[in-house]
Amino acid sequence: xxxxxxxRYHAFPVRVSVRRVAAALAAVLVGIVGIYAFRxxxxxxxxxxxxxxxxxxxxxxxxxxxxxAGTTQRINIALYGxxxxxxxxxxxxxxxxxxxxxxxSDGQPARVAEISVPRDWYVPIDAGxxxxxxxxxxxxxxxxxxxxxxxxxxxxxxxxxxxxxxDANLSNLLGIHIDHxxxxxxxxxxxxxxxxxxxxxxVANTFTDNQYPHGECDQGDCAVMTVHFNAGxxxxxxxxxxxxxxxxxxxxxxxxxxxxxxxxxxxxxxxxLKAKVLSVGGIGHLPxxxxxxxxxxxxxxxxxxxxxxxxxxxxxxxxxxxHISIDxxxxxxxxxxxxxxxxxxxxxxxxxxxxxxxxxNNSFPSNDALRxxxxxxxxxGSGYGQDGSGRWSKLLGMVGFTASDxxxxxxxxxxxxxxxxxxxxSKTAQWLASxxxxxxxxxxxxxxxxxxxxxxxxxxxVILGQDEERSFNGNPQRGSGGGPGGFGSPLTxxxxxxxTSRRATPRPSVAPTAPPAPTLPPTPTACxxxxxxx
Length: 534
Prior knowledge:
The chain is of the alpha/beta class. It has 3 domains: 18-59; 75-334, LCP protein (Aminopeptidase); 362-472, Alpha-Beta Plaits, CATH 3.30.70.2390. It contains 17 helices and 19 strands. It has helices spanning 18-48, 52-59, 139-145, 161-174, 186-195, 238-246, 259-278, 280-283, 286-293, 303-313, 354-361, 367-371, 388-398, 426-436, 443-446, 466-472, 529-532; strands at residues 75-82, 93-102, 111-117, 122-126, 132-136, 180-185, 199-203, 207-213, 224-229, 232-236, 297-299, 322-325, 332-334, 346-348, 375-380, 402-408, 416-419, 440-441, 460-464. A 6-stranded mixed β-sheet has the order 11-6-1-2-3-12, sandwiched between helices. A 5-stranded mixed β-sheet has the order 16-15-19-17-18. 43% of the residues are buried.
């Protein structure tokens, strides 16, 4: 009798069982996971400079030592974005941001502030060995990477030299110690977005930039092109996200044609990238993301440090991040290009930087004060007409308060803080009084009139005095605003939730050397800073 073919009475060979199929699938799965883990470990190792063994030990929690683990001290990490190879001024940092992390002693998730610094800020740049030149702050990183001949030894012969010199000078400007840095070129930025499948960004304003660079001048392409963005949610690939982040002209919407608007757009893209990476689908792109970053990122953070920072902020809602912009609406002013200066420079109103140091050091108000959600009204009692009330309502808003512009008020020599809430907003009033170096007034007891005479329950009123405006303009002897005044010296900072007071805190006696006259700065050149110091 003829035997039937096996295929007619068995779907699979007899040797194949369900158990063997499961085992094979498990082996394939283990292989996939193994490849993913290997690529992830090697990518992290290459990116951070930690050995594969250190990365693996940290991931498995066997050993993960970092000085940042469990710290209660404020951590400040500078992010520097630059063009990289193939771009004009490869290491000029067109994007500068400080991510400041304040751990909480009560075990709550750390608080985070993103502080944007404009690239056109004209400042003294200390080379580290007694040589100080003047230029835009975006030159500092390039001076270290180009190993200028007058730079101190610690800024030479090291891929971290650019970050070290930029960190030191940024610390001097902001009054906080920069603990670590991350340098990222445009290639990494674009590749990172593409590696996770693009990002979703909610564009705030419609704008058109008809001067966006088509290519690089040093490669013979100095042409420009027109790019356009509509307001609303958009999905962007890497190229589109890079254009959105780099654009700095907008003929149809002046509000978007500034470095400050560009800084805000960069923050939006970074937030979108973070959200995508941490999403369920984004985790699968992690090896590709690490591979895309590759040699395009320079950092002095080890993976152990990264892991410690993640543990500090993993429970922090990004919606609660503070977004602080240092710009010409607060501590800086434009020099008046092209009528009054040869290039688009920004100068500090207070060239001692003391008032800016005070604000940055106190950028994390006490939780007790913020929880009151007190309405704050800011009135300008300086009599100088420099819109102090508008400036300070925005500055207080950036650090988490609800503040409104109360316009001009009765002139007062000193700043006043009035608690109109019947005590319900006492924590807010006390924090503000400590910050401005004054005491809390209560109109019911003192018979206060004018802007402070608000009904009980209406929050807190701040009346900016002539002392605040003189401090803001850097000259305690001068009674008018509108530009930089004399020179002082930085306040010693505090990272506690109780603000330092400008009257209560003594000032050191050392003052920075004066830069050239702000109304007529020297014409910038394409040469390194060192050439301008000789």
